[in-house]
Amino acid sequence: MRYSHCKINPARLLYALRIFPILFFHFQCSQLEIEKPNLFLFLFLSASPTSVGVVTSDFASGGRFKTFEPNSFTTFPTSIPIHSDAVGRYSNDRVFIVNRLNRDNIQVLNPQLGFTTEQEFSVGQGKNPQDISVWNDKYFISLYNSDELAIYSRSSGTKVGSISFASLKETFSTSGVPDNSVEASYMVQEGSSLFVLLQRLDRNDASGYLPPNSDSYLVEIDMDLNQIRSVYTLPYRNPSSKIQKINLFGEPHLVFSCVGRVGFLSQIDAGIIAFRLNTRQFHPNRLFAEETAGGDILAFQIKNDELGFAAVLDSKFTKTIQAFRPRTGERLATLLEIPGNIGISLSGLLLTNEGKLLVGSTDFTRPGIYVYDSNLGNVLLNPVPSSVELTPFDIFQLQNLQ
C-alpha cells in the first residue's frame, strides 16, 4: 500500500501487532491509494510471538497448516495446503510438515515468508514418514514402512544415505512370518545423538490389529557418523506419543507414552515412562500408569514434577483429559470427558511455554481447540472450541527446541 500525507511509525505498528492480534484495521488517511498487499502487514498477520502451529485435516481430500494464538483465541488467515494425514515439527527456524501415507513427503515452510512452502521432496511411495530431525546439512527421517532410518540432503532434498534397522526387526509373529518393518516413529535430539522409537509391531498377527508381540526399542543414533550408538529395550511396549525432553527430579529426561495393546485390543499394560539422559537408564516407576488413568494414554504434556496432562482412551472408547502428578504418579483431576457413544475425538495436545493447555477436538459439527490455563487451576477459558478452519490433528510450538 502507498499512503499520501499519512505518517505511520513502524515501531508503534510493530508493537501494536505484537500485543493486539489485529485481523482488519483502517487508517484514516487522505488520498489513500491501494496498489498491492503490504508484505509487512502480511507477515504479521501470519503469526504472533506466542502463536502455535496447527495441522488440520478434513480426513479425506486434504488439510491445512494454520497458526493459532492461544492467549487471544485468534486464528490467523494464513492457510497452507498440506496432506490430510500429516504431523508438524518446528526446527531450525522452519516448520516441517511430515505428510504421511499416500503422500510420503516432507514439506518445509518458511515463517519469515508467511509460512510459504520453500522446499518439498518425496521419501518414496508407501514409506509413510513419521518424523524429521535436522542436523548440520542432513535430514534424518523415520519411516514407518521400512527397516531403515533415511538420510536426506538438507539443500537438495535428495537421499544421501541410510542407517539400517534390519538387525532390529522382530523375529516372532503369531502367524510364523515376521514382517519387514520396525515401525520407526517419533524422534528427538540430544547433542549429537538422535533417539528414535521403534514400535516393532506384529503386522502379520491373525487379529489384524498390529499387536506389540515383541519388545519395543529406543535407538540412539550418532548423527555425525550415521550409525547406531546403542539400543535400549523399553520396559513397556508400543511407544505411540511424541517424545518430550524435560527436566524432572532435577535432571534431564526423555518422556513418552507406551500404550501396549490399544483400541480394539486394549489392555491395561503400559503408561508414561521416563529415560534418564545422564545415566541412559529408565526411571524405575511410570510417571502415570494405565491402571491409574483407566485406559490407554495416547498423548501427554508435562509441566513439572507436580503437574502433567494426559489424553486417555478407555476400553469403552470414552475420551478424557486428565491432570496427574509425575512425581507420585497420582491422578489429580479430569478436565474433559467425552462418552464413547458421542462422535467426538481428541487429537492434538500441547502445553505452551506460557502455561496454556491446548486440546484439539475433532467434533465434525464444531471442530476446534479448547484452551485451559494451567496457571489458574486448569480452568477452561473457551467453553466453545476456537475454530482453526478444519479439524485440528496436531498442535506444536513454533519455537526451536533447546
Quick take:
With 402 residues, this protein is mainly beta.
What does this structure look like?
- The longest helix has 10 residues, at 10-19.
- The protein starts with a strand and ends in a 5-residue tail after the last strand.
- It is globular, with a radius of gyration of 22 Å.
- The chain has 402 residues and is mostly beta strands.
- Strands 3, 4, 5, 6 and 32 form a 5-stranded antiparallel β-sheet that branches. Strands 19, 20, 21, 22 and 23 form a 5-stranded antiparallel β-sheet that branches. Strands 7-8-9-10 form a 4-stranded antiparallel β-sheet, with no helix packed on it.
- The chain is built from 3 helices and 32 strands.
- It has a domain at 1-45.
- A hairpin with a 2-residue loop joins strand 15 and strand 16.
- Mean pLDDT is 90; it is low at 1-37.
- It has helices at residues 10-19, 39-44, 290-293, and strands at residues 2-3, 32-33, 52-57, 63-69, 74-75, 80-82, 86-91, 94-99, 105-110, 116-122, 129-135, 138-143, 148-153, 159-164, 184-190, 193-198, 217-222, 227-233, 244-248, 251-258, 271-276, 281-282, 288-289, 296-304, 307-313, 319-325, 330-338, 346-351, 356-361, 368-373, 379-380, 391-397.
Task: For this entry, give a set of tags.
disordered N terminus, 5-stranded antiparallel β-sheet, mainly beta, 3 helices, single chain, about 45% strand, about 400 residues, globular
Secondary-structure map:
Elements: E1 2-3, H1 10-19, E2 32-33, H2 39-44, E3 52-57, E4 63-69, E5 74-75, E6 80-82, E7 86-91, E8 94-99, E9 105-110, E10 116-122, E11 129-135, E12 138-143, E13 148-153, E14 159-164, E15 184-190, E16 193-198, E17 217-222, E18 227-233, E19 244-248, E20 251-258, E21 271-276, E22 281-282, E23 288-289, H3 290-293, E24 296-304, E25 307-313, E26 319-325, E27 330-338, E28 346-351, E29 356-361, E30 368-373, E31 379-380, E32 391-397
InterPro entries: Quinoprotein_ADH-like_sf
